[in-house]
Design goal:
256 residues, 12 helices, 77% helix, mainly alpha
């Protein structure tokens, strides 16, 4: 396969995992998060540091997801008592704090970032990860826990009156969504083979949220389609003609 096409497909698959994870938090549980890229960063740095230390790729990928899930649960305890815009601002602040920490720590490489990460990520691995993410979310959302997520989204006060621990439910949704983001971050790091804090800024979170909104909040197929569309559309515009390529970002924004 052409290397350029292969890269577009791999990055589109990684974005699908990110969009599915955020859709669980924002689409199905109704909690607006603007810090999803921070969990991606945690997974990317954790997995990259472990493989550079000689650990197996699968173990490092799982560890990256688990550390991101733990971070999601910990940040969820103080912030998920908030709602609406207040929650969005809190998650935005968490993402920026994490980016600044990564920018100033020696273990993360500071502003230079991490180099020479092993290139373990391949298209088949990404496709398997996408399939496992999608199928696991179908099972989760079809369970009692999934119905609790939707109940919190529809009416948090009514869900609380019916005996659902809404705070615990939101924290769990945040942790599960963060796990998928961490796995996606690990796949990203081992495909690009170089990461730095600028890869996981505020605009990255906005990009992931745009994929979810475009595909339809609370729709798993919609999250997949939104992620694929926003991952491939700029590249398709680049290949149409030189005149279109020159203004592709403007056209992309207008289409969006």
């Amino acid at each position: 396969m052409n290397a350029y096409v292969l890269q577009v497909l791999v990055l589109a698959g990684i974005n699908v995992i990110l969009a599915l994870g955020l859709n669980l938090v924002s689409g199905f549980t109704g909690q607006l998060s603007l810090g999803h890229a921070a969990f991606m960063a945690i997974g990317a740095y954790t997995a990259a540091l472990l493989t550079k230390a000689g650990q197996p790729f699968l173990a490092a990928l799982t560890a990256g997801g688990l550390v991101a899930a733990l971070a999601g649960a910990l940040i969820g305890i103080p912030t998920l008592r908030l709602r609406g815009d207040y929650l969005a601002i809190a998650t935005l602040g968490f993402g920026e704090i994490l980016r600044v920490v990564a920018l100033n720590q020696k273990i993360t490489g500071g502003p230079v970032g991490l180099r020479a990460i092993p290139g373990y990520t391949t298209l088949p691995i990404v496709l398997i990860a996408v399939a496992l993410t999608y199928l696991s979310l179908v099972r989760i959302l079809g369970s009692r826990l999934g119905r609790a997520f939707v109940a919190v989204r529809e009416d948090e006060l009514a869900a609380d009156a019916m005996g659902i621990d809404t705070t615990q439910t939101k924290i769990l949704a945040f942790a599960v969504g963060a796990f998928y983001a961490g796995v996606a971050g690990g796949l990203y790091a081992h495909y690009i083979r170089y990461i730095n804090p600028s890869n996981f800024g505020f605009m990255r979170s906005i990009e992931i949220l745009s994929m979810v909104v475009l595909g339809g909040m609370g729709s798993l197929p919609g999250a997949v389609l939104g992620a694929v569309a926003l991952s491939t559309l700029p590249e398709l515009l680049r290949s149409v003609s030189p005149a279109v390529a020159q203004y592709r970002q403007l056209i992309y924004g207008a289409l969006l």
